[in-house]
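ESCALATION

Customer reports they have been waiting on this structure for their group meeting. Please prioritize. Original submission:
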Amino acid sequence: MAGEVTVAELAYYPIKGCAGVSVTTAELMPAGLAHDRSFMVTGADGVFRSQRRDPLLAVIRPEITQDGSRMTLRAPGVEAMVLDVDGSSAPRDVEMFKTPYRGIDQGDTVAGWLTEVLGVPSRLVRVPEDHGRVTDGLTPGTSGYADSCALHVVSRSSLELLHARLAEQGAAALPMDRFRPNVVVDGWDEPHTEDRVRRVRLGSAELGYAKLAVRCAVTTIEQSSGARTGPEPLRTLAGYRRAAGGGVVFGAKFAVLRPGKLSVGDEVAVSAWGESER
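Update from on-call: job pushed to the front of the queue and completed.
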C-alpha cells in the first residue's frame, strides 16, 4: 500500500434508489453525507420502492439546495419538478425491509410526477427530524433511508480486480456507479483493503467500520437508463466474493464517529485495522 491514499470520488443520493449527485466537497453528518438518502419513494401503502423492483428510479435525477429547502427532480421525457420541501408536517407510517419508520409526505403534486415516471402509484417522503434510527454492525451508528449504515466506501483497486475477473469471462467492464458508493478511495494497491479498515480519518471526519456491503440485483441495472442488463457483476462476484454469512460482498459500510468536511483529494488515514469478515 505504498503511496498516497486519497478520496477519489464523493457522491450522495438525495432520494433512496434515485440517481446520485457527484461533488468535490461535502459535509459529513452523523447520518452520512448531507442530504444522503433523506428522501424515499414509497407506494400508496407506504412500503419503499427500490431499483430491485422499480429500476426506473435510476433515471430520476434529484438536485437539492444546500439548506435542503428546495429540490428539483428531472427524468427523461417529462418536465422538471420543483418541490418546496416539507420538513414540518406530521409524519406518517412507512416501511423499509419490513421495518417500520416514519416519513413526512411531500404532497400530491410530486406524487403524481413520480407516478408518471415510474408507471406505478408512488409518493415521496422525507426523514423526520426525530428519525432516531440505530444501524447495526461492528460500529453502530445512524442513517437516513440508506439500506443500512451511513457511508458506503469502495476502493478503485476493488473495481479493477472485478474488471479483470469480468474480462476472464468475456464480459465488459462496469462503471463504479453500479455499486452506488458514497466514497471511492484511490491508492490502496490491494483490492478490498476497505474490508480490513476498522477506524479511518478522511478530511476532518472519522469513520468506524460497521460491516461488509452485501450486493443485490441493483448492481445489474444500468444506472443511466434503468435497464436490467443480465447477471453481471453478481455472477462473477459469486466466484470469488462469497461471504461466510451468505451473499456476495463488495465494498464496506461505515458509521460516523466524528462528523466533518470531506473533499476529493483528502488523505485517507487508517488508524486501526482488522481481519476481513468474509
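Sent to customer with the following note: DSSP finds three helices and 20 strands in the chain.
Escalation resolved.
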